[in-house]
Amino acid sequence: MPKPRVYIETTIPSFYYDPRLDPEIVERRHWTRLWWDQAVDRYELVTSEVVLRELAAGTTNIALLRIALVAPLLRLEFEPVVGEVVGEYLKHKLMPAVPPYDAWHLALASFHCCDFIVTWNCRHLANPNKAPHVARINASLGLYVPRLATPRDLLGRKDE
After folding, report:
1. To pair with 49 at 20 to 30 A between CA atoms, which of 5, 82, 93, 105?
2. Closest CA to 8 of 145, 156, 119, 125
3. What is the pLDDT of residues 110-160, one digit of tens each?
4. With 60 as the cut, is the pLDDT of residue 12 above it?
5. Distance CA 106, CA 159 (A)
6. Counting runs of H as helices and runs of E as strands, what totals does the chain give?
7. Are 119 and 146 in contact (CB under 8 A)?
8. CA dihedral for 80, 84, 90, 94, sign (positive or negative)
9. How far apart are CA 6 and CA 115, in angstroms?
10. Residue 60, pLDDT score
């Protein structure tokens, strides 16, 4: 049985190495690291050049650590149709146009039939209020609808 395919969005390596001490950040870093330790065995982890570009925009040594975390992962291919899907998302105001990264993440994961997008971006991606809109637009485009989840959502017990 194939492992579920999980698209790793930019916030995952970002929180994995986030040095801030705010309690909410510390908690997300904890859940991210706990999930990551189990994810390699449970899932087929994939990412994209979009994630690497976002991570490379950082200017600290931490940016290099974040890139190194996802560098070994399979990168989803850009196909011309993915750009058209991004255009549809932006036209329907599903994702913000500036910057368009979230639209690209969703389009790539949808086009490549990822089972999940794992993210801490709860405003634009892992937002339960957006899920029906994502499903409707992807259905109209004939695309797969990935489940949008945080690492904590996907963190199961060892017996699951």
Report:
1. 93
2. 119
3. 999 999 999 999 888 888 888 999 999 999 999 999 999 999 999 864 434
4. yes
5. 30
6. 8, 5
7. no
8. negative
9. 6
10. 82
Calculate the average pLDDT of the chain.
93
Q: Which residues, in sequence order, are bridge partners of residue 75?
A: 47
For residue 103, which of 9, 6, 14 has the smallest C-alpha distance?
Answer: 9
Q: Which residue's structure tokens are 């329907």?
A: 92
Paired tokens of 102: 């979230």
DSSP SS3 for 44: strand
CA–CA distances in Å: residue 139 to residues 27, 31, 76, 133, 136: 35, 32, 21, 10, 5
Q: Which two tokens mark 87? A: 């255009």
- Three-state SS string over 50-118 comes to HHHHHHHCCCCHHHHHHHHHHCCCEECCCCHHHHHHHHHHHHCCCCCCCCCHHHHHHHHHHHCCCCEEE
Residue 46's nearest CA partner among 78, 66, 65, 72 is: 72
- Given a contact cutoff of 8 angstroms between Cβ atoms, the answer to whether 106 and 117 are in contact is yes
